[in-house]
Amino acid sequence: MHILGIIQARMGSTRLPGKVLMDINGKPMLWHVVNRLRQSRLLGQVIVATTVDSSDDPVADMCRVRGLLCFRGSVNDVLDRYYQAALLARADVVVRITADCPLLDATVVDRVIEVYINEKCDYVSNVNPPTYPDGLDVEIFGLQPFCEVWSRAEKKSEREHVTPYFREHPEMFRQLNVTNTCDLSGMRWTVDEQSDLVFVKNVYKEMGCEFFSMDEIVELLRKDPSLSRINTGFLRNEGYLKSLSRDGKA
C-alpha cells in the first residue's frame, strides 16, 4: 500500500502573502512541514502540491534546490491538484497536510493512518470535530473514494478545500474521527496571521531544535502561558468559512 503525504502550498495567502516560505529558525516554513512529516513511520512518500501560476515559482524553486518532490496543478481547484498529484505518484492512499502547519507532529499523523488501516475506512480525520490544536490537522482517504469525490464535488468550497464532500456525505463513505485524550482544539498553532508566525518562531526558539512533539509544546505553554496569548482571537478554519459563505451556506 503506497501511502502518499501531499502538502498543499502556494504563495498567495490573502492574510499573510508568501507565508509558506517565511523564515523559521533559519529555514523556510515549508521545509519544516516537509521534514516533520517525513518523521512519520507509515508514509511512503511526501510531495508538495503547488500551482502552475508564476507567483508559485519560488515554491517550486525551493523544492528543486532542496531535493523535494513537487507537483504543479490548478490554482483554485485544490481538489483537482491533489487528485492529479495522487495519480502521478501512483498513490493508494492520500494524507492531506497544509503548508501552514510547521508544528505538525508525525506521531499524530501516524495515529490517524493507523485508524484508517485498522478500521478499513474511506476517510479518517482528526478534525470532525477537532480535539487537537489548530495546526495539527490530518486527513486521510483512499484513492478510489477520492476519485468519486473528484467526479462529484461541484461547489466552490468542495473544490477549494478538498475534503468537505467526504464529511457532507457520511451515507456514501465509511468515515471515522480520531480524538485526543483531552480537548486541545482551542490552541492555535497554524500560521495565517503575522502573530501566528511570531508564536511559532518563539516555540522553535524555546525548544532549541527542529523536532519536538505536541506534548512537549503543550508542556512549554503550561510553563509559559504568555506564549499562547501572542496569537489569540482568531477563528479556526476561517478560509473554509469564507468559502461556505460564497456557496451561500453561511
Characterize the structure shown.
The chain has 10 helices and 9 strands. It has helices at residues 29-37, 57-65, 78-88, 106-119, 143-152, 156-160, 164-168, 194-207, 214-223, 238-247; strands spanning 3-8, 23-24, 27-28, 45-51, 70-73, 93-98, 123-125, 139-142, 175-177. The mean pLDDT is 94. Strand 4, helix 2 (57-65) and strand 5 (70-73) form a beta-alpha-beta unit. 39% of the residues lie in helices and 15% in strands. The chain is an alpha/beta fold and 250 residues long. The longest helix is centred in the middle third of the chain and has 14 residues, at 106-119.
Please, how many domains? 1
Number of helices: 10
Poorly predicted tracts of residues:
none
**Beta strands, count:** 9
Strand content: 5-15%
Q: Order of strands side by side in the largest beta sheet?
A: 5-4-1-6-8-7-9
- Derived from helix and strand composition plus strand pairing, the structural class reads alpha/beta
Shape: globular
Percentage of residues in helical conformation: 25-40%
Mean pLDDT: 94
Keywords:
single chain; 250 residues; alpha/beta; Spore Coat Polysaccharide Biosynthesis Protein SpsA, Chain A; 7-stranded mixed beta sheet; two-stranded antiparallel ribbon; 10 helices; 9 strands
